[in-house]
Amino acid sequence: MSQDSSKTLPPQQQDVQPGREGEMRPAPKADAEDYVGSGKLKGQVAIITGGDSGIGRSVAICFAKEGANVVISYLNEYEDARHTLRKVEEQGVQCLALAGDIADEGFLQILVNSTLERFGRIDILVNNAAEQHPKEKIEDVTSAQLEQTFRTNFFSMFNLTRMVVPHMKPGSTIINTTSVTAYRGNPQLLDYSATKGAIVAFTRSLSKQLVKRGIRVNAVAPGPVWTPLIPSTFDAQHVETFGSNVPMGRPGQPDEISPSYVFLASKDSSYISGQVLHPNGGDVVNG
C-alpha cells in the first residue's frame, strides 16, 4: 500500500495557545543549526515579539549569529524562552527575555524601556507574535474573539512600533510578520486573515512615512510553517495533513523562514522598503 501523500505530520493537538515547542513531534527545526553568520548585524539590538519558539526563535538565533544582541518577548512559554535565550547567548551576544501579553500597552512600554536600559538602543524591530482561532461560520466569530485577535495581532504591532520608532536612527529596520492568508484568504480564519491584511497595508503605509527618516519597513508572509501555533490551533486530523496543499507538498520549517528576516534587517536589502517576502512553499501570490 502506498503512503498517503497528504499526510505530512503525526496527528497531535495541544490544548492551550500559543503552544509549547517542547511538546511537538517532530520538533520544529528552529535552532538555526546550519545557519552561518557573517557579522551583518554586529553591535545592533533587535526586539522580537514571540521570540521564544517557532519563527521568532529561529530569527533570534540567526540575528545572534550575525552579531546582534536580542530581546525576545513571550506570553508564558517559560521553558521555550529559556531554550531560546541559551541558544542566543551561545553565540557570544546578550539576550533579554521578557514575559507578558503584547496586547497590554503597559507591557509594551516595559519591553521598550527594558531594552533601552539594558542596551541603550533599538535598531531592529520584528513584530512577529500572533494568535488564531478557526471558526467554520462568521456567525461563530464573537465580538470578543474579533477584538482579541486584532489586539494581539495588529494593535500590539501598531502600538509597539509607535513606541520604538522615536528611539530608532537612520539605518534601522522594522519587519512585520504577515501571512499568505492575507493574499489567499482562509475560510476558517476570517479574523486572523483580516489582521494579516491590515499588516500588509500598515507595512506599505509606514514605509512611506518613515523613508525620509532613514528607517526601512518590510514584511514576511510565510505559508504553512511547523510552529507551536499549529497543534495548539487545529485538531489532530488537520495537523496530520498540514502544509500538503502547497506546491512543495509540505509545511515549511522556521529555519527556512528566518533568513528572510536577516536579509530585510541587514544592508543587503538597503534599497528595499514597503515590500513583502513570500517564503510559502511555492504558492504564487504576486503580491
Q: Major sheet: size, sense and barrel closure?
A: 7 strands, parallel
What is Rg?
Answer: 18 Å
Estimate nothing, just give the exact number of structural domains: 1
Order of helices and strands: EHEHEHEHEHHEHHE
Strand order of the largest sheet: 3-2-1-4-5-6-7
**Termini gap:** 41 Å
Mean pLDDT: 95
The number of helical runs is 8
Question: Helix/strand-derived class?
Answer: alpha/beta
- Name the shape in a single word: globular
Helix content: 25-40%
Architecture in CATH?
3-Layer(aba) Sandwich
| Uncertain spans | none
CATH topology: Rossmann fold
Describe the overall structure.
Pfam families: adh_short_C2. With 287 residues, the protein is an alpha/beta fold. The protein has one domain: NAD(P)-binding Rossmann-like Domain (Rossmann fold, 3-Layer(aba) Sandwich), CATH 3.40.50. 36% of the residues lie in helices and 11% in strands. The protein has helices at 54-65, 78-89, 105-119, 143-164, 181-184, 190-210, 236-240, 254-265, and strands at 45-49, 69-74, 95-99, 124-127, 173-177, 216-220, 276-277. A 7-stranded parallel sheet has the order 3-2-1-4-5-6-7, with helices on both faces. Helix 2 (78-89) links the parallel strand 2 and strand 3 (95-99). Helix 1 (54-65) runs parallel beside helix 2 and helix 1 (54-65) crosses helix 8. The chain is globular and about 45 Å long.
